[in-house]
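Customer ticket, subject: "Can you confirm the structure for Purine-cytosine permease?"

Message body: Hello, I'm evaluating your service for our small team and ran a test protein. I'd like someone to confirm that this is what the system normally returns, since I don't have a reference to compare against.
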Amino acid sequence: MTLYSQEEEAIEEIVGEEFERQPVPQSRLKSWKSFLGMYAGEHAAGTEFVIGPLFLTTGVSAFDLIIGLLIGNLLAVLSWRFLTAEIAVKYRLTLYYQLEKICGKKLVIAYNLANGILFCFLAGSMITISATAVGIPFDMEMPKLTDTMPNGITWVVIVIAIGAVISVIAARGFNTVSKAANWMSPVIVLAFLACAVVSLQELNVSSFSDFWNIWGNGSEPFPGQIKYTFWHIVLWSWFANAAMHVGMSDLSVFRFAKKASSGWTTAAGMYVGHYMAWIAAALLYAVYLQTPEAQVLLGNGEAPPVAPGPLAYRALGFFGILAVVLAGWTTANPTIYRAGLAFQAVLPKTSTFWVTIIAGAVATIAGLFPAFAMKLLDFVALYGFILAPVGAVIVFEHFFAEKMGVITNYAEKSNISFNRAVLFAWAISFGLFYFISLQFDVFLSFVTLPAWLLCGVLFLVISKSIQKKALA
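Agent reply: Thanks for trying us out. I re-ran your input and got the following:
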């Protein structure tokens, strides 16, 4: 059995109906190899073609980018290893069932709805990315960095066509989705490497110092962008997948792991995908910035577009177009599928096929608006900020509930469908730090960790108060 086949079998069990409401038995556990391929493939995707160039638009320096990404991705790996994987192998439950035990069924439905909508917006940005490649043969006008609305009928038709195809494939079930991704992922990784090699040649890089000087000491951010420092890069890259690690979404993945040490396999995604792919995509944009077209735009005070299709096409020709389409495809397909599963918890009587079609329609509508892709750094930060504190409830209960005399799995044990402690903890932590971010113009990734910590502490404190009154 190949590495990818093992991975697909593991994921199929995860997203299917097996063991949804019981711990995974020992006979169905997977070795670390099953997770290595999954994370390497999932994190070398369409988003990387946008994130790399967007870093350049923030005027980041070489040290801040290269060392910041090194540290930020390491912190993400450590979060997966010592929080997500550790809790997953102890209880071996899906995120949703574990949350249901703590929060109650009604709160889990609300979480699923929020999760599904955010998944749709993320998938919409992937459709946007694929559209920038498909539109090249049609001489389509590419979205600008500041665009929020569709820029023409050609754009609308292409986005709808891509969204329809992706939605139908996702609705056909996980087997179809995983088979489509199986042969695409190696091509995408190869394309990122090829983009890096070609870009380095065009930039006349012959030494490490030449490579370092591409970013140098940084520059002023492009119009409409904020200046990124070392800590912006570290915290943004740490929390780019906050919903998955500190938000505990990947409990559903690692519950199949034989040991918590399988959490180290996430390094394949962080350093093959995020680290290598982001820098490779940034190099593509660095080449484009040297063109007369980009220089004219900069001279006029405009930010040159970061549309991935044209950037990859300049470097790799039609192989670049194919790579961008596939990269968007492999991310949007499973993302829409996951959104459909989340919506099914809200609409349990609706078939998986139709809730996935609904999710695909929402994602396609989102894809019509380039802002989701052009503002991807901001959206990913918001996505993690909203969902991460929910994971703090699970983490703090696991590590500290017994010491504080808090009853674990309180919703299940007390037979309630709505645990107020969870809602209050999340609402206060989210509301307070989102207000701070808006009022004082604080970068959202700077307040994700404080919000996460506060939510965990408040959950324990409020839970103890509620439980004490209930038992009095």
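A couple of notes from the result: Confidence is low (pLDDT under 50) at residues 1-18. Residues 421 and 463 are 5 Å apart (CA to CA). Feel free to reply with more questions.
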